[in-house]
Amino acid sequence: MRLILSWLFRGFAVVAALSGVALALGYYLLQRSLPDFDAVIDARGLGAEVRVVRDRWAIPHIRAENARDAYFALGMVHAQDRLWQMEVNRRAAQGRLSTLLGPRTARLDRLVKTLDLYGHASRSLPFQSPETQAALEAYAEGVNAWMAHLFREASGRGAPEFFFFGDEGLSPWTPADSLGVLKMMALRLTGAARSEIRRARFLLELPPERVADILPEAPRGAITALPRFAELYDAPFREAQAETPEDPLVTAFGPAPLPELAGASNAWAVDGSRSASRRPLLAADPHLWLSAPSLWYLADIQGGDLAVMGGTLPGTPLVLVGRNREIAWGLTTATADDQDIFIERLDPEDPSRYQTPEGWAAFEERQIRIEQRGADTLIETVRRSRNGPVLDGGLFGAEAVTPEGHVAALRWTALEDEDRTFSAAMGLMTAGGVEEALDLASGVRAPAQNVLIADREDIGIVLAGALPARRPDSPTAGRVPSPGWLAETAWEGIRPAQDNPRIFRPRTGALANANNRVTDNRFPGHISFDFDLPYRIQRLEKELSAREWHSLNGFLALQTDAVSEMARSILPLVARDLWWRESRESAAPAGPNARRSEALALLAEWNGKMDRNRPEPLIFAEWLRQLTLRLASDELGPLMPLASGLRPLFIERVLKDVEGAGVWCDIDKTPERESCAAMVEAALDDAIARLVRDYGPNPEGWRWGAAHRAEHPHLPLGYVGPIGWLVSIRQETSGGDFTIMRGATEGTGSEPFRNVHASGLRMAVDFADPDRSQIVIATGQSGHPLSRHYDDLAELWARGDTVLMSMDDADARLGALGEMVLRPSE
């Protein structure tokens, strides 16, 4: 027995030693892919020497003799820190994610190739300005120079992910790749098509007036009544089916599953008349999906006439939110209705044809290939009508609103070759003033954005993006899928860009946008029927009006304001009857009612601040969520996931019985007539039961931050078993769906209040001293999980702090990590 144990021990020791060697070797190989910030690198394609100083946060400060070399260096540092992120984003835009990730992402590849996103991007290159084409070429050469350096020096493949997935398909970067990355972002930033489809699904189950309750449209200027969707068609629809959740990898790289998560943002500015420094101030915090590394990468880029800094988009030479020496700018999603679903009627005798106002026409057809890692290549035929690509295979969930004998097609402003959006964005980076920048915005096609701009004297805002010209006699107004064979539903081109809303030198001295309505124009001169709920803009208006003068520190504090105007508005409506009853009862309640009383007492003293360390936000949010479930589940049935989460306007309409909305309180499947008061009370009990189950029996110990964790999943390893916990980033956060410090939630699943969509970048600029600009991103500069700069900004971001980002060389060198020298070589 002793001999057996001895040999077993020796065997265990050998295995342990070999495992240790393997781990050490793996760690060594992974570490070799970390860049040397003090390296001297010979790079083919450079015209002159470039120096790149990395400040204490690893933010690169690029100093070149001309703009071309500066863009070349930006390509190099992007590839140094974010090569894997760039590669997966490029493949997503090409419809080639499945070559890396297998069948899980085939659905997204099918969508991208059906829309021909990369084809449109590639064909738009000749339409870019000469300066933009030169920048794209220089940037691509810089990326390729870094990849050549990696292969020449055997420096660990450039990113540890390549050890997992291989780099056999790593091809040279091209200008079309950068155009494709921006085109893919446009796809992710619009929810118009999904909004149409969801509204149509509800209209198939509910009368229009009840759909207006659960999906209320933006007030003022809207059409008074929704159409009866089914009556637009003379063929049967499928019965309502439960929504099948997308694979999380598809959601991570593709369009948002719910329109509310497509895009958001805050931006505001005051001119010198409202500023303590007597110069304009600007703040911007774009709200997008969270990931590790962040979507954003900070850089200061200077060379020749080029001098710009801010949040860049890896894979492109663009600073999307930032400043140059003359202006600063921020972006907010315009929520423009830039997509329409068209239902095409097939010829019963020949399904290769579809009906148009002029008669039957043949679909255009082409083949696509979807190569899948570990599975067979898919070869499919895709079709296109005069209204756009046909959405076969369940894309966008359009099959649920497509009657038999019909197909759905997508018309979208971005599906054009003559798209100069990239050049307009590049022009903004060198604009010399607000007026010039406002004019440049007319070149933007998609994604549609509100661009807020400040210079040393003025402020302005413009809606930049193509808006469809629809006919006033359209029976759908673009709110639900339209019959493609009717002439009145067709687009009549694009509205003139000069007609887009713009404001220059506002009389009040202040501008703000939080994805709210920017014009009261009626259809068809409107922007959209679907804007973000008004609570964030109400809070901004209140805070900007509360004081005569503002400061940079005040703007920074406002960016992290966590007070919910929604909670202040809705809580008294929901809780008033229960508060009154509690005040009338003299005896202290016992048992479960004691916990209810404690929760109500906490809410009665609450100021509406969604503080991560307090229980009240959690009690209120879960109460509202459970109330929505109680009110809507019986009517919506399997469609309930499409209305999940917090729907305060729905709650308000129901409890105030607006236009008969109080009918939602009655459960139509029971003989009794339930009251709204009973539903509110039962929902509170449901909420408390769930919170006790998940967070313990003591309400004082519940914390909003425990439920409202920001989730930054590594793409794609964050979705691969236990390794996801090692490479993803999580922080407890304040704020919520309707606060300026926005942290949007999905409202479903075992963690309904996870923060999945937030301000991954915050920036504030005071033109009295622009080199005191403050900025932060949600993770860190590096995309390498073993780098200390992978998450070194994450905790600063979570608690609302920022870092100084200056274009001054002395500031950049203070505490610098190193200086990389790029030298031209033949």
Describe, in plain words, how this protein is organized in 3D.
This protein is 34% helix and 19% strand. The chain has 24 helices and 29 strands. α16 packs across α19 (648-655) and α18 (616-636) crosses α20. The radius of gyration is 28 Å and the shape is globular.
What labels describe this entry?
826 residues; alpha+beta; eleven-stranded mixed sheet; eight-stranded antiparallel sheet; 24 helices; 29 strands
Q: State the share of residues found in helices, binned by percent.
A: 25-40%
Q: Numbering strands along the chain, what is their spatial order in the largest sheet?
A: 1-29-2-3-6-7-8-9-17-18-20
Report the major sheet.
Answer: 11 strands, mixed
Backbone CA Rg? 28 Å
Overall, the morphology is globular
User: What's the pLDDT, averaged over the residues?
Assistant: 92
Approximate strand percentage: 15-25%
Q: Structural class from helices and strands?
A: alpha+beta
Distance N to C terminus: 70 Å
Separate helix tally: 24
Oligomer: single chain
Q: Uncertain regions: pLDDT < 50 for 5+ in a row?
A: 7-30
Helix and strand topology:
Elements: H1 2-31, E1 40-44, E2 50-54, E3 60-64, H2 67-94, H3 98-101, H4 106-115, H5 117-123, H6 130-153, H7 161-165, H8 175-188, H9 192-203, H10 208-214, H11 248-253, E4 264-270, E5 281-289, E6 297-303, E7 306-312, E8 319-324, E9 327-333, E10 339-347, E11 350-356, E12 359-362, E13 364-370, E14 378-385, E15 388-389, E16 406-412, H12 421-428, H13 434-440, E17 449-455, E18 459-464, E19 482-483, E20 502-504, E21 510-513, H14 535-545, H15 552-559, H16 565-584, H17 592-604, H18 616-636, H19 648-655, H20 676-695, H21 704-707, E22 709-712, H22 723-727, E23 729-732, E24 743-744, E25 757-759, E26 761-766, E27 774-777, H23 794-799, E28 803-804, H24 809-813, E29 818-825
Parallel strand pairs: 1-29, 3-6, 10-19
Antiparallel strand pairs: 2-3, 2-29, 4-5, 4-21, 5-25, 5-26, 6-7, 7-8, 8-9, 9-17, 10-11, 10-16, 11-12, 13-14, 14-15, 17-18, 18-20, 22-23, 24-25, 26-27, 27-28
Helix pairs in contact: 2-6, 2-8, 5-8, 16-17, 16-19, 18-20
